[in-house]
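name: query_chain
kind: protein
chains: 1
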Amino acid sequence: MNFRRCLMMMVEPIERPRFDLAGVLGGGTGVDFERSLQVRAAHLREPRVIDAASCMWLLQCSAEQWQPLPSDPQARADVLTLLELGLLVSDDPAHAQALAIEQQVRDSHWWPLSALHYQHSRWDGVDSLGDMQRSQLVTAQDLVRSFGAPPAEAPPRREGARALPRCGDDPMQAQLQARATCRNFDTGRALPLPLLARLLQQVLMAQAQVETDPGVRFLKKNVPSAGSLHPLEAYVVVRHVEGLAAGLYHYHAVAHELAPLPTQPGDLPGFCLRLLAGQDWFADAHVLLVLVCRFERSYWKYRGHAKAYRAVTLDAGHVSQALYSAATAQGLGAFVTAAINELEAERAFGLQAMTEGALAVCGLGWRAGAMTTAELDPIGRVWPAPRPPGNGTPQR
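structure:
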């Protein structure tokens, strides 16, 4: 059997405070720190804790050259332990699955720090609303009570600045000011299918395509994308649309069509709530758009590039803003959130981890007639009536 170290990993020294009775009795503060070494790898969902000797041994292993299993019993035991932890991989058939997963990450052309960040920032089973409630960090008043006042909303004005003219009759400005994140949807009123189709056409549909070489095509959409690669796909969760069964769909941007997924969740409302990490104010939207990146499309050009992951997250931002504008023009409310359980989306849509993954969820639909969940609308264009008492401004 031969082995090598995984390619993308980092070692993080961890210190956790603990009560030290002996320290108190000896006249100390009673606070001690427990130290450990935590290793995060791009192909592993969870960090691994190892001791200093194992860490030094691991760092001395090659990530490129295969090494034979050592004959020394202690060294052999160290190798087998690190193999079980997934920090080493081997060519033994017993470890074939682990090797394939690590090799997939090697072949994906991620910049290592981005791969580590993406892998270890994905959520699974997180209830963000429950966490906020347990921590009493729901309203702006809660945040100020716990953290103090936030940094200033704007930097100081600079001397010598020139005042710019304001345009009072700009129709685009009026439309943009009518945009406010929606947290209250009218579940009793269905969204017409032609209206959904129009929004998808405006925001996500490929308006044109160009073939630079046989089989090499680039798309033109109404949103920008790094390298004109457009690696984002939209998986559509339909809740309340006329003439369209509730469920999960994939939107094809070139063909402009919705295809139902072969496997549907038995409890669609429950799936939406889990996907949105407990944010129930978004879960009732008429339509959810899960923005999924095909990383291999982007990293085909930006191989191991330090800015590649940042670029695809910017792509998601472009789509969300275009969706806000298009929905507002049709009298609809919209939202975008990155507080999602990515692994819930991966399981539901059959995504291959680290090759494709969910970046954000957008949603849209008719606004409710009354605001039961607090929203932020400083200029009162959407909700001119008084806010619900006692809720404060929600955390955005």
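note: The chain has a mean pLDDT of 92.
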